[in-house]
Drug/metabolite transporter (DMT)-like permease ([Clostridium] celerecrescens 18A), 286 residues
Amino acid sequence: MKKRLAIGGLILVTIIWGGGFVASDMALESMRPFQIMAVRFLLGTILMGLISIRSLKGITKSEVKAGGLMGLALFAGFAFQIVGLQYTTPSKNAFLTALNVVIVPFISFLILRKKIGARGIAGAVMSIAGVALLSLDRNFSLGIGDGLTLICAVGFAFQIFLTSEFVKKYRATVLNFIQMITAFFLSIISLMAFGETQFHVTGKGILSVLYLGVISTTVCYLLQTTSQKYVDETKAAIILSLESVFGTLFSIMILGEIVTPRMLAGSLIILGAVVISNLSEAGQVE
């Protein structure tokens, strides 16, 4: 029963995150990237702090270190994603971000020496083909937005991997609080470094950031961390890949984005790569 609830929780996370691509695109109409991230993670830090306030009394150095590493990976993923979103469409941003799922098994191999199956390698090759079809121009150059989004996928891959490893050893609420406050401070440093200190926020921007901070960040990362106690990282990765599907659907429904046959083909190849590579890992015997 706990495993079924955990799977249901991860599916809910993907639906909400899918809406996050649209919310981020709306927020960018009146706010700069690191302004959005700073407000988003400030809300996440406050709410997660309230949730975990009792647990923080017995916090350990190991939990701080683990949460800090998760926060660093989370910040890197969101930073490259939202900056990249300025130069590409929400649907392409969503499907390129989904490649983090293909990357997770390779991180497990490099750090834990977990074997990568033949289908895992095939999934990686498929993902490269999907990215080429989805993102490369006629002269085979990669747009800056798509390139930044590919880097963001690496950050999110590390976040999924680290979450799966640390949630088995430490308390989920504490990990999430440290993760949020780390990402918040890194966002403030970046905001100041890039001179984004002047705020001119519209009503739509405020609502978008509230969605990102309260629902897409606090609720989702608490759900993700708790759910991954009962679902291994490869199965969790397969479920989380649905984020790209919902991101595209919401982008079409709300923003009226037009999806071309080439974009659709590339997206389907990437989604297939995500499922194939991770199903192979889930089926392996340790």
In short: Residues 2-27 form the longest helix (26 residues).
